[in-house]
Amino acid sequence: MRSRGELMGQAAPARDHLGWWLMIRCGCGYLVDYPVRLLIDHYGPEADLHLISARLRCLNCKERPVSVELVDRPDRRGEGHGGGTPATIKPLP
User: Residue 91: inside a domain, yes or no?
Assistant: First the structure.
């Protein structure tokens, strides 16, 4: 397991995405949203989200996710069901 210092980088520092969640999709169909603020609590504000996402494994099948994106709120699954404003989803920078 890498130390906190090894997970620090410049490409996508967690501090720049404090109010966001990682939307993690697996090929088995499992989907989870993980708050970036919890990653900051564990790895620190300078932790690189690319390095963290490269280590992720599915809780269901233990495989690596097929995609990891940023989402501004985890309720985006309800889009189109009630006319609310769609969530913003973007790739890791």
Answer: no
